[in-house]
User: Which sequence fits this backbone?
């Protein structure tokens, strides 16, 4: 037990027979960047690890007063459990679910209440990872666990929901491997502006979410990207960036895709993709047209359009409609405070 309180220091220099850790190596590596714990872990390991480290600091053996730079407490993973009329929890393997959805205890037929409870050996409601991996693969299981909810929230195991993540990974596979002869698709020499913008948008959003440990929203942004990229030509560079973005969550799948794309070495040491803010800036914006305060249409215009030109475009757009306007009406143009792009035109029509 005592050794477990300072093991992270020994990991830095495990072959040193003279001291537990070389001082120069300790200065280079400490403190630990991220400690993933939990409420129960805090009083069993974290408290004592910090105590031992502070003692070593006072004795001059380590260079930092605190061992861990950032603490993150993950939420518990819950699974279905069952409770009888007395409030006693009944192990999962002692119940039967009937055709009408009710659950009864095998020994006496009592109808039980279905609840969500922390996975535990005593309730025998622990989900065996091996069974899930055998059916869906390790990457699907990993991504499903990350997608269920924010990492610091309680999560509830739902075996029906895992298939959605599996479909997403199959779409990611198809994005790269749609040519059966070569095992890899034929990449386009040129792609649409929308495809380029989609991958740069994904890089920006997914990178920020990874840094914030918001893995569920990172996955959601990757899903948005696959929706925009599927069914159209994409360049090799866009495919490469997509695989790198997905790799932390689905490393097995992405290493295989990386190899099929013709790269000899692992992707683990590749530079992280960067986005270009200029690419994310669209050439045009959508302007809402209101007449007397009510929406009557919308218009796609250049970002830098001036008020006079915008007024003419609104008159043209409304021509022939039930809400025609003309140059004698009053036009109120609302622009974005930050970049001054037009957002809305409200016409006070003279009737």
Assistant:
């Amino acid at each position: 037990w005592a050794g477990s309180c300072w093991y992270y220091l020994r990991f830095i220099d495990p072959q040193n027979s003279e001291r537990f850790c070389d001082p120069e190596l300790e200065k280079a590596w400490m403190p630990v960047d991220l400690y993933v714990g939990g409420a129960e872990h805090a009083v069993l390991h974290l408290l004592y690890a910090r105590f031992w480290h502070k003692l070593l600091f006072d004795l001059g053996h380590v260079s930092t007063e605190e061992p861990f730079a950032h603490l993150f407490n993950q939420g518990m993973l819950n699974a279905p459990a069952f409770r009888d009329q007395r409030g006693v929890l009944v192990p999962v393997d002692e119940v039967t679910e009937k055709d009408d959805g009710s659950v009864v205890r095998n020994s006496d037929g009592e109808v039980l209440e279905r609840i969500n409870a922390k996975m535990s050996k005593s309730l025998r409601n622990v989900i065996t990872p091996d069974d899930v991996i055998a059916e869906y693969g390790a990457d699907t299981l990993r991504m499903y666990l990350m997608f269920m909810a924010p990492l610091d929230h309680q999560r509830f195991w739902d075996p029906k929901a895992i298939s959605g993540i599996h479909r997403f990974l199959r779409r990611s596979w198809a994005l790269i491997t749609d040519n059966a002869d070569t095992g890899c698709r034929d990449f386009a020499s040129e792609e649409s502006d929308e495809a380029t913008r989609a991958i740069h948008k994904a890089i920006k959003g997914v990178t920020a979410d990874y840094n914030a440990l918001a893995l569920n929203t990172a996955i959601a942004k990757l899903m948005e990207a696959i929706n925009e990229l599927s069914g159209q030509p994409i360049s090799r560079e866009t495919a490469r960036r997509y695989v790198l973005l997905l790799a932390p969550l689905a490393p097995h799948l992405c290493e295989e895709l990386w190899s099929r794309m013709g790269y000899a070495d692992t992707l683990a040491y590749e530079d992280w993709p960067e986005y270009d803010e200029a690419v994310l800036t669209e050439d045009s914006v959508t302007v809402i047209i209101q007449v007397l305060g009510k929406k009557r249409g919308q218009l796609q215009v250049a970002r830098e359009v001036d008020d006079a030109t915008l007024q003419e475009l609104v008159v043209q757009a409304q021509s022939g409609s039930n809400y025609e306007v003309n140059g004698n009406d009053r036009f109120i143009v609302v622009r974005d405070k930050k970049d001054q792009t037009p957002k809305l035109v409200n016409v006070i029509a003279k009737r």
The chain is about 40% helix and 15% strand. The chain has four domains: 3-73, 79-118, 163-278, 284-348.
